[in-house]
């Protein structure tokens, strides 16, 4: 007997002596590795046969019950060890696996038989060599390089007994007895061969993509609960609405249901035009099939859409689904009685809903609040009336703009799902901090990012600054895909493409064609001279009387004093005079008249002085003077009634300031009085533009034009002029819709409500044939922003922005009414009317007005620059975005100054994998280290994508890699990093684009790759690229260590030892090559 310790004496050296020609080798062990075959290849090729017995159930056709507990090496690891144990990773990383596996498989076919123990009974591990001098080795745990002594295993020491004859013959007889026991053993040779073959066969790109996902998201498959997944037995997949969805909408619907079940909430934030409403309707159908009660909360302007889809109407394409959800308006949350449609609000059981769908949920982004009178806002009412009481309430939120300019917008909406108590998510999220802490940190990083130089202030930089926890929340409860994402990663042939956007057309007419008339610049100078003191009576209260009005200056929860509100309204009105002038001379004139009349009435009160007279200013502003965005301000919800005794005021100074403004306003009114419609150059340019569209349509026979303006006054002015002109000149009908007046149209005896007008303007998308088969054609629609969200008007191919909204996002939302997937139009056009001044001067003008208004308050402080850095940044942002809109139509997710959650989530990949894994069990047994060859695309250039696993858990410093311990790196053919491991979403997207749908190997590309590498024998190029990939990870970690030296809380430097290639296991790789598929 001899002891082998695999240190001074190694088993492999002894076997090279004892394995003689024509020997018969018998091995009973836990696992077999192709790399052990390679080490003894010369000897194994000369033996007569090898019998290998897996001592625990391995590679069996019938899987043993999962409940049965296994000891020592888990079954999955035993099977995977065939392609290299955990101690043979380095060899797999050398790319030798393909060539070795091919040779090993050929040898097995000639000389080897594998059997497996299929019982729970233990079998001892040993090896016998039956030759002229029989030898036995015991124990031999496995046939791997570690067991042979070629690699250092994880055992403290190894003691293998070499037993010579005659005792060795007893082991051989024992092996023969077990080997011939058909009850206990099963022949698994074919299964082993099949598994080895997978290591060198040509893999389809699609299989490799899902194999990568299987490794990265395998835990998700193991831990996902059937209760959290949509049940196919529910029947909702047989519904009409489900079968009307495109693939990307179905993916979203399934993911939404899963998120609602896990987290009680989800935000669907797909970009404009991607059919969020139909996706939500499929989710509603799922829950209604479970007999759960559903409420849809939407803006009033969108209620007709939702009501149609549940009504027994001829134009309802989903009538057969018999949807039965309730529809209420956002504003109904603030009402205690009265009717909303046919619903009696005084009797409504708000707490009985199982699912609440909130359309345009960004209207709830400001969170809860209570005004000075103790009245709760809509958000608080929703939380306390609907979500918290009664049954478990799931919340699905729909918005293309869930984030405005701060991440807290998103948190406030998500809080509806966890009912304001984020601890409910503590055990569900894989995060180390609370939701509040995560968002606080994200907002802090955003604030730091917003102060960077413009060249550094990129979305990519912001993504690098945000940590894993933030993305974990996004991934868990949001779905946000962009138009480019859908076009790039989904097959949209059956959907129809988005129409092609033509470059925007700029119109910049002068104010008027009258000679010696006033110009924009002259009007601007006069506006700058206004103090607008009519809006700030509190500023004139005598210091000795201020105490009497202390309640006016008491800060409520929204931190606005009465004086603060007045200053805010004055600033808004000063800016609004510019907006109104830019909109139309008509609107500007009306606003001047309103302010003048209000000043005149106040001056009359002062002239007839009565010391006990109360100055009462109600509704300092009219809704018509402001656009929809301004009207959302707190300034208009509280503090609108002001009562001040004249005797308590320095009324003489106020009188002087009011008189000065009155005279300026009178001068302005006189200067614009002669600009009638016939001399309104902007209006005349619009009429010419409309005429050109009719003479030269963008798409054959399409005469439709959608005209947007921010103000209802301008809309009505245009309707009066355009309607008559188009009917007279072209026989076309015009309609008007605004948020403040009933719709109008030039069609005689036509009921011009919102639904009817939109149906006749966009008859295909609104299904006029079913609802109003004899309805008239309306080809020109004039509207305010009351329809800039949530409406599908894709029959139209031209949007005219008659005024440039101060918020660039609004312009993109307007265009989104016609820029929609599935449009029948080949091209679409945006036409923008700009004031007759340079853009820089236009933006600077607002800054000057803002500065002027603030200077009136801060004059005593000596502050020479009253605009804050944030306000300056906001103006600069608007300048940049408006400049872009002169030359291109920008996507909504590109318009938010970096605060966008679009295309960040990984859930889509998990749901894809979940479906694929149901039908491809081979994912579980496939070896690591496999590869596929895919054809390069314009977005995925030639190179290699490596999927690696960190085996020591030592690299993910500061939680920067979302996929840890998995690392993805995409290099070009020269080893330059295209996407680093810190951009896993970009790499997964690229892999999806390269691989999805490629169900067969590309034969031409595979032939070229095999010729280049001599069928896997010459892989030095790819070994070098793999080393470059690992170095890119280690370098990033080193940078992080260095950064940490300068952070509070200690350093990560020297805490771990990541030396390079041996710390990573190659899971798989995709070789991306030029060349078309054949």
Question: What topology does this entry show?
Answer:
Blueprint: E1 2-4, H1 11-18, E2 24-29, H2 34-39, H3 41-44, E3 49-54, H4 75-80, H5 89-93, H6 97-111, E4 112-117, E5 126-130, E6 135-138, H7 145-148, E7 160-164, H8 167-179, E8 185-187, H9 189-197, H10 205-216, H11 218-223, H12 240-244, H13 247-263, E9 265-268, H14 276-289, E10 294-298, H15 303-310, E11 326-329, E12 339-340, E13 343-344, E14 355-359, H16 378-387, E15 394-398, H17 408-414, H18 435-450, H19 459-465, H20 468-477, E16 478-479, H21 483-489, E17 500-501, E18 505-507, H22 520-528, H23 562-583, H24 585-607, E19 614-618, H25 628-631, E20 641-645, H26 651-672, H27 681-695, E21 705-708, H28 712-730, E22 734-737, E23 744-745, H29 754-761, H30 768-771, E24 780-783, E25 798-801, H31 808-815, E26 827-833, H32 839-858, H33 869-885, H34 907-919, H35 922-925, E27 930-935, E28 943-950, E29 966-972, E30 977-979, H36 984-995, H37 1003-1013, H38 1020-1044, E31 1064-1073
Helix pairs in contact: 6-9, 10-36, 13-14, 13-34, 23-24, 23-32, 24-26, 27-28, 32-33
